[in-house]
Write a structure and sequence with these properties.
Radius of gyration of chain A: 27 Å
Strand content of chain B: 15-25%
Number of domains of chain B: 2
Number of strands of chain B: 12
Strand order of the largest sheet of chain B: 2-1-3-4-6-5-11-7
Distance between the termini of chain B: 42 Å
Number of helices of chain B: 11
Largest sheet of chain A: 7 strands, mixed
Helix content of chain A: 25-40%
Strand content of chain A: 15-25%
Shape of chain A: globular
Structural class of chain B: alpha/beta
Bound molecules: iron/sulfur cluster
CATH architecture of the largest domain in chain B: 3-Layer(aba) Sandwich
CATH class of the largest domain in chain B: Alpha Beta
Oligomer: heterodimer
Number of strands of chain A: 25
Chain lengths: 625, 345
């Protein structure tokens, strides 16, 4: 067999026949130390640059290094890439890469019948089989006969390709993910350039490791060509996407960038107070790199300090955001109440994960909607917005900032683990497509007596005079205050009035947000699938498929959950049945029933995993039967 | 954002710092004396009052901002240092004071206090220590003496107290001092030193709660015992008290145990008395001062520790300036088009 050399970029494809496919779903799986997230991300970025539409779903364990070889240490990355528009990472993989027995055990049930199975046979040792709980070696027991299995000694092959490099055994073995990536690149006719460039940038300081990874990538590719295991190469042409400039975007980066863009748009420096927590930490990491955007990231001593420092920054005139996940949000509750009481702008980001308590840190869930809605003492309404797709996190973060600044309120932005780590191609918006984020500082003392709670008649927002401004020295605080003066007031009527004012301020936001949009028949019909947040892709695709079959079903997806859009009730009443698919025990369903006395039906999945399209499709068929 | 005018000399008086709000502490409360001293002291800073911010948590002392005519924020229980950190980081030109109590800052808010001090955010923290929960009507606090009978400890508290100054020193505070509510002159001197310090500073003020813990400090604040039971420390001066007739030296079996000695006639020469050094490297000297107390020792008051360390918010902004200089100021377009992009026609 020829060995890979380091001087060519993408080797020849061996002249094998090409077959065009619409799309493919690949799942890379292995031990948490096998580098599957990196492999998946690389394949994704290459697919994105080649113009495929795509959606990804990384799935990894909570432990950084769970015991090697065990099923709970398995890390996976699923990618759906296509020449058509797609909305989910795919229900069932067409291709499963399993780097060890545990990965095979965990993921095999999801693989399509007849699907491609690529296995590192070197990892199927007695010890690893025991750890994964296999009594017999599945490679020989016949259980894999329904699949197109390619059992390859990937470790040995990597070793052979890198033997001249002088790298240690451990370092060589670490490169086997690049070998596997190379093999998949061959199978799908992908060029190596993108990943070669990545290796060059990433391992700039470690030239020997960079060389090893390059050689492994090329050796994997060449193995595909030379070994004749694959009879054909699959082509997945470009997708028809809306014209424009594109980039690949993950949810947490989009969220962070939305905050930076809001800050720049408003001309108000960003203050991000946060405490490390999965799966929100990447927002903190990302923002901490953008000092040249004037962004201040404050890694606080705890969740409470993260939110209260942000409130302090808002008092002093910054665009204040605090980010966390459910457990952290629980700790912030009292402070969010303070922000509502003193009427300061604040955005609270909740990258939701499985709960309650520590729950499932690395798994997704949408079970903090009611926490955002009600999780504070006293009557404390807070506006809530939610992102539907990874790239939508960008616009919805800007929206959250816009509302917070305009109405002088704390605003919740809900995303989740699935959006946070998932990615999709994103058409970069033009300037005029961005929300109009503005701060409304009071810089000159108004005529007459000055009060910190002077209000805008239309929005009911109070004025925002900043410390440092002469003549407007004032005190604010968490005690109930009289309507405009802000002086402490225990007056019963005033308290009731202030409670209504805080509610009314939130309610009026309904006049300032888009109407809810219906995909399907706007005139109403038999069935409405009502969703919010990250279930967008699965519901959208299921409804499209059902409609293609002639079923009378429509889809409405909420991005604004408090207040609801103005037309929300009207739309709901146009449908005979409303089903709410949610990754929780029925939280939006409860709100809909409570507010409109509409008997909405739940479709609930609480497994730490997103919906499959087929699960929603089955529900549609059930409800219309 | 507002850019604050330079703190050039402004002529203000005590009255300028009084707000229109009626002061509502219990008659006779030590807080009145502290408020009066702070209002009398602030004009000496020459800082326009719009540049001064008072931030408090919850408790009797935390009503303080309402009585000041500066900017003020009465926040939630224990969180004042964190909110004040946000204010100071957002606008370093503001002169930010935190007013807190022993329950507020050492119990529910202990975490924020130690981390603000550790970071060296330039906050001036006034900790009113009355060794009791006043606003909630008389429960023992983290500084209440062991065995204290209160509403929540009818058989005597089994909690071990700690010293606010010890906590601050353990948290690497760059400035730690102590004073007494009724000693206006000393308190004003401590305020001046605290205000002049660049970095976070904690000033513990013994404050009498005449309703729930009256007379907590009379054993060293009353006229007749004051001289013999207070050790007023000053940088570079020997630890002397009782009109200079007694002092503290380090001796004992280990050579560094503090012991009271008679100085001069019939006692040891002055040269044997330990000399105060606020900058002593390990903080051990200051820690000793934070720990010794009556009845075995006189109560130390004064500046225990004062050292220089880079100020947190200055470093934050310096880093921003440095990166901005190196990379140029970022724009939305630049952000969105950075890294790998491709065009679809
Ligand atoms: S309860 Fe005590 S500390 Fe509080 S105001 Fe009254 S006397 Fe002062």
């Amino acid at each position: 067999m020829s060995t890979a050399s380091d001087d060519v970029t993408t080797p020849h494809d061996g002249g094998k026949p090409h077959r065009a496919l619409e799309g493919a779903v690949i799942r890379f799986s292995g031990d948490s130390g096998d580098g599957m997230q990196l492999t998946g991300t690389q394949f994704t970025n290459t697919a994105a640059v080649l113009g495929n539409d795509l959606a990804t779903f990384p799935d990894f364990p909570a432990e950084i290094r769970a015991p090697a070889g065990t099923t709970f240490g398995v890390s996976g990355f699923q990618l759906n890439f296509s020449s058509r528009n797609i909305f989910t990472p795919g229900d069932q993989p067409d291709v499963l890469v399993a780097m060890n027995p545990a990965a095979l055990k965990v993921n095999l049930p999801d693989l399509k019948m007849g699907g491609i199975l690529i296995i590192n046979e070197d990892a199927f040792t007695k010890q690893n089989l025991d750890r994964a709980g296999y009594d017999d070696n599945p490679l020989h027991s016949g259980v894999l006969s329904h699949y197109r299995m390619f059992s390859i000694p990937i470790s040995t092959q990597t070793d052979a390709a890198l033997k001249e490099t002088g790298l240690s055994f451990k370092e060589v073995q670490r490169a086997k993910n690049f070998w596997t990536l190379g093999l998949l690149y061959y199978l799908y006719g992908r060029p190596l350039e993108h990943t070669l460039k990545f290796i060059e940038d990433k391992f700039r300081a470690k030239e020997d490791v960079a060389l090893g990874n390059r050689l492994a990538l090329k050796a994997g590719y060449m193995y595909g060509e030379v070994s004749e295991i694959f009879q054909e190469i699959y082509d997945i042409p470009k997708a028809q996407l809306e014209p424009g400039l594109y980039r690949n975007m993950t949810g947490n980066v989009a969220t962070a960038w939305g905050a930076l863009a809001a800050s720049k748009k408003a001309g108000i420096p960003l203050f991000y107070g946060s405490y490390p927590i999965t799966p929100a930490s990447d927002v903190l990491h990302t923002l901490s790199r953008y000092k040249h955007f004037g962004a201040i990231t404050f890694q606080a001593e705890d969740e409470i300090a993260a939110v209260t420092s942000a409130i302090g920054a808002a008092f002093a005139g910054q665009l204040a955001i605090t980010g966390s996940s459910g457990p952290g949000i629980a700790l912030k509750g009292e402070a969010i109440g303070l922000a509502a009481m003193v009427e300061l702008p604040l955005v609270i980001l909740n990258v939701q994960r499985g709960g309650p308590s520590t729950g499932l840190p690395t798994k997704t869930e949408q079970a903090d909607l009611l926490q955002a809605m009600y999780g504070r003492n006293g009557e404390c309404p807070v506006p809530i917005v939610a992102a539907s797709t990874p790239s939508d996190c960008f616009i919805m973060m800007m929206e959250a900032c816009r509302l917070a600044l305009k109405y002088m309120v704390p605003v919740f932005l809900l995303t989740d683990g699935y959006l946070a780590n998932g990615s999709e191609p994103w058409r970069i918006p033009e300037d005029d497509e961005l929300p109009d984020v503005q701060g409304h500082f009071l810089t000159e003392k108004p005529e007459g007596e000055f009060h910190p709670y002077l209000r805008n008649e239309e929005t009911l927002a109070r004025v925002w005079p900043l410390p440092g401004t002469p003549g407007m020295e004032h005190r604010i605080g968490g005690l109930e205050k009289s309507f405009t003066s802000g002086h402490i007031s225990y007056d019963p009527e005033n308290h009731e009035k202030m409670t209504w004012v805080r509610q009314e301020k939130v309610d009026r936001i309904a006049n300032d947000i888009p109407l809810a949009h219906v995909d399907g028949s706007r005139e109403g019909g038999k069935l409405l699938m009502l969703g919010w947040g990250s279930t967008y892709g699965a519901i959208h695709q299921a409804v499209n498929l059902a409609r293609a079959e002639g079923l009378d079903v429509s889809h409405m997806h909420l991005k604004y959950l408090n207040p609801f859009p103005r037309n929300f009730e009207d739309v709901l009443r146009k449908f005979d049945k409303v089903v709410v698919p949610e990754m929780n025990n029925g939280q939006l369903r409860r709100l809909v029933r409570d507010k409109f006395l509409i008997p909405a039906i739940g479709l609930n999945k609480i497994q730490g995993k997103p919906f499959k399209v087929e699960e929603i499709l089955a529900c549609i068929k059930r409800e219309l039967a | 954002m507002v850019t604050v005018a330079d703190n050039s000399q402004v002529k203000l008086t005590r009255k300028d710092f009084q707000s229109s709000q009626e002061v509502r502490w219990c008659p006779g409360c030590g807080d009145y004396a502290i408020l009066a001293t702070v209002q009398r002291f602030l004009p000496s800073l020459g800082i326009p009052k719009e540049n001064i911010v008072f931030i408090s948590g919850i408790g009797c002392s935390s009503r303080f901002p309402y009585y000041m005519s500066t900017y003020g924020f009465h926040t939630i229980h224990g969180r004042a240092p964190a909110i004040a950190s946000g204010v100071k980081i957002a606008n370093p030109k503001l002169n930010v004071w935190v007013v807190t109590g022993d329950g507020d800052s050492l119990s529910i808010g202990g975490n924020h206090l130690i981390h603000a001090l550790r970071r060296n955010v330039n906050l001036k923290i006034l900790l009113f220590n009355n060794r009791i929960y006043g606003l909630t009507k008389g429960q023992y606090s983290p500084t209440s003496e062991a065995g204290k009978k209160t509403k929540s400890s009818p058989f005597g508290s089994v909690d071990h107290p700690f010293s606010p100054a010890s906590v601050a020193l353990g948290a690497e505070a760059t400035f730690v001092a102590r004073s007494i509510d009724r000693d206006a002159k000393h308190l004003e001197e401590m305020l001046a030193q605290l205000a002049a310090h660049e970095g976070s500073g904690l000033l513990e003020i013994f404050q009498n709660c005449n309703v729930f813990n009256d007379g907590a400090y009379v054993h060293f604040t009353e006229k007749d015992v004051k001289d013999s039971m207070q050790l007023r420390v000053e940088h570079g001066k020997p630890f002397l008290f009782a009109n200079g007739t007694k002092g503290i030296r380090f001796g004992g079996a280990r050579g560094f145990d503090p012991e009271i000695v008679t100085v001069g006639e019939g006692g040891v020469p002055l040269s044997e008395v330990a000399v105060h050094d606020e900058t002593e490297a390990t903080g051990a000297l200051a820690f000793m001062l934070s720990k010794v107390q009556p009845p075995t020792f006189p109560m130390p008051i004064g500046v225990f520790r004062k050292v220089q360390r880079p100020v947190y918010e200055e470093q934050v902004h310096a880093q921003i300036a440095q990166v901005t200089k190196a990379r140029g100021e970022g724009t939305i377009r630049q952000l969105l088009t950075s890294g790998e992009t491709w065009r679809v026609d």
